């Protein structure tokens, strides 16, 4: 199958540090090439891929992150040549709008973000002409009733690239954006209550992130046993996650997915997380981590000691069985086949019940 993968233009594919979508796109493109497909990747210059690379920009326009004109100029380059492909897979914020235009191959669009009003309005306007894919059952069940979905495909990671470091040290780890919904302040408070050293890798890039870091996080970091870590390459992230006794995921919002828990588990490290959004689909309670009622910080603190007694082999097994990139590639192959066979009509709306997590091992 001739497939065009359209990545957002803002970061390299794969990313050097921050960039969850870009990491997923990199694994998907390379995985599809490995299974025999003819894949073209539309991404910023400097990206590395086994696919054929097309670039609108010589380097990522990160300073213009979120600018609609910049992104549409990038996406348009793929759609101008759309008849060369059997299917287009779009991962951008606005590219689905071009996919709804008549003519050309079917367009699959992955919903990498939450259901904000703008996203809901855009998806309604597509009128079923684009095959929308949710990244979790929770995200799918939150879709507006009049928005059609073509399926649910969990994000994947390269489990083989995450090694078990062990034995674990006594410190805790937080990885995420400088944003209240990610709960970095809660991670600091948990570590303070437990008297543990906390290592934090925090993305501070956008103006709102700088403001939150300066006003809220910086004073807390200065007053507690917290170490800031800079991630400049994937290996550094593996070292950070793999050396911890537990990784903290104290989110304050219904996360559509969340790659950090998977990456921690692949390193053999358990996760403690609030059971909100897609987290119960990602963390196997009692096997790869401990789930806590959202907002219950006392329960979160108690869960850390339970989590650090978990077996590293079990953590890695959950990641490999359910979230290795090969599983994601096979799932998207099925979505593409249905899209090509549909003659341009996306699947009708349906409910996507959340599957029960695998039972903990006795």
Question: What does the model show?
Answer:
- The chain is α/β, with parallel strands linked by helices and 362 residues long.
- The protein has 13 helices and 13 strands.
- The chain has helices spanning 20-34, 68-79, 95-99, 117-125, 137-141, 184-194, 207-222, 234-242, 260-266, 279-282, 297-307, 312-323, 325-341; strands at 2-6, 38-42, 52-54, 87-90, 107-111, 131-134, 151-152, 172-177, 198-203, 226-228, 246-249, 271-274, 289-292.
- The protein starts with a strand and ends in a 21-residue tail after the last helix.
- The relative contact order is 0.14.
- The model is unreliable at 354-362 (pLDDT under 50).
Rg, Cα atoms, Å: 20 Å
Shape type: globular
* Arithmetic mean of pLDDT: 92
Helix content: 25-40%
Q: Unreliable segments (pLDDT under 50, ≥5 consecutive)? A: 354-362
- Lateral arrangement of strands in the main beta sheet: 3-2-1-4-5-6-7
Treating each run of at least 4 consecutive H or I residues as one helix, how many helices?
Answer: 13
Order of helix and strand elements from N to C terminus? EHEEHEHEHEHEEHEHEHEHEHEHHH
Strand content: 15-25%
Helix/strand-derived category reads: alpha/beta
